[in-house]
Amino acid sequence: MTLTRHPFSASFCGFSQLSDSYERSGLHSKGWVDMGISSRIISNHALRLRSCMDRHNGVFRRVHDETRKAHAVAPYWQFVRDSEIVFGEEVGAKLVNGDGACRHGNPLGFSDHLMPQKLVVAVDVDEVLGSFLSALNQFIADRYSSNHSMSEYYVYEFFKIWNCSRTEADIRVHEFFKTAYFKEGIHPIPGARHALHRLSAFCNLSVVTSRQNAIKDHTLKWIEEHYPGLFQEIHFGNHFALDGQSRPKSEICRSLGAQVLIDDNPRYALECADVGIRVLLFDYDNSYPWCKSGSATSHPLVTKVHNWQEVDHQLVSLAVP
């Protein structure tokens, strides 16, 4: 029986746990999937996929009572491969190659070839997903007795603001990585998680960050804590690192087939826009001075946004002509 004859999108409504009646009947070690297409035995830790139609004497009928309507419960992900349905539990990003890339499962669980073509979006971490600079400023103030405010950072190059060499600035940042200021002090940008959860319905989301390989493990942990299951891949550029090679963001984005980059740095914005990638230049609450310098905003592929609601609006307009 093919998917053409029984379209998945026409019958699927959501998930439901196995009902009490099935558990009472002795199906404790097995469960089953009913999509109005076919049935398949799965483990009892999985969810039961139910359609908006129910079977009565071998005939499908629409379910009207509230208790039988399909709904979503429990944080499980389903992976659809061609006409086969398999359920599993997402356990976090896994390293898939040696160039700093990590991969998640599809955030909604559906394989892309069963869905309309999704917009491929790359998302930066620092100052876009989390407030890195606020935590770093606190560390510099406490460790080096040097107080700086966000308004001083006319450029996102720390040595120019701290009046030290580039090497010294890199050493200080790597000291910061070893402290609780970094490990516990970076808070999510307001509105980001909610917007990304909504956007994941029609966007393939991946992280593209300039962060160093030295903080890869903690970054993965932080993303999984604050943005669980939302990103398919996580790539590290390893910029400003004490060792190892770096990769340009434009190269990473092109390898992903990214159509849009969300980033706060005008230099990266211009670099990616010049190779044909649309960029949403993120200037949260109009409070990032470094976003206001350079020629990036005059590029036709760069659009300034000031919060995640504006990101949502821009991506919806791109995805839905």
Description of the structure:
By secondary structure, this protein is of the alpha/beta class. The chain has helices spanning 8-11, 20-24, 132-144, 158-162, 166-177, 180-185, 192-199, 216-226, 249-256, 266-273, 308-319; strands spanning 12-16, 30-34, 39-43, 48-51, 53-56, 59-62, 77-81, 84-88, 94-95, 101-103, 119-123, 203-209, 233-236, 260-263, 278-282, 302-305. The protein has an eight-stranded mixed beta sheet, with helices on both faces. Strand 2 and strand 3 form a beta hairpin. The radius of gyration is 23 Å and the shape is globular. It starts with 7 loop residues before the first helix and ends with a helix.
Shape type:
globular
Total beta-strand segments: 16
Provide the low-confidence segments as ranges: 1-98, 105-115
Note the main sheet: 8 strands, mixed
User: Taking all residues together, what is the mean pLDDT?
Assistant: 75
Percent helix among the residues?
25-40%
Distance between the termini: 34 Å
Over all CA atoms, what is the radius of gyration? 23 Å
Question: Helix count, per DSSP?
Answer: 11
Strand order of the largest sheet: 9-10-13-12-11-14-15-16
Structural class, please? Answer: alpha/beta
Give the arrangement of secondary structure elements:
Elements: H1 8-11, E1 12-16, H2 20-24, E2 30-34, E3 39-43, E4 48-51, E5 53-56, E6 59-62, E7 77-81, E8 84-88, E9 94-95, E10 101-103, E11 119-123, H3 132-144, H4 158-162, H5 166-177, H6 180-185, H7 192-199, E12 203-209, H8 216-226, E13 233-236, H9 249-256, E14 260-263, H10 266-273, E15 278-282, E16 302-305, H11 308-319
Parallel strand pairs: 11-12, 11-14, 12-13, 14-15, 15-16
Antiparallel strand pairs: 1-4, 2-3, 5-6, 7-8, 9-10, 10-13
Helix pairs in contact: 7-11, 9-10
GO molecular function: 5'-nucleotidase activity
Active site: 124 (nucleophile), 126 (proton donor)
Pfam family, one: NT5C
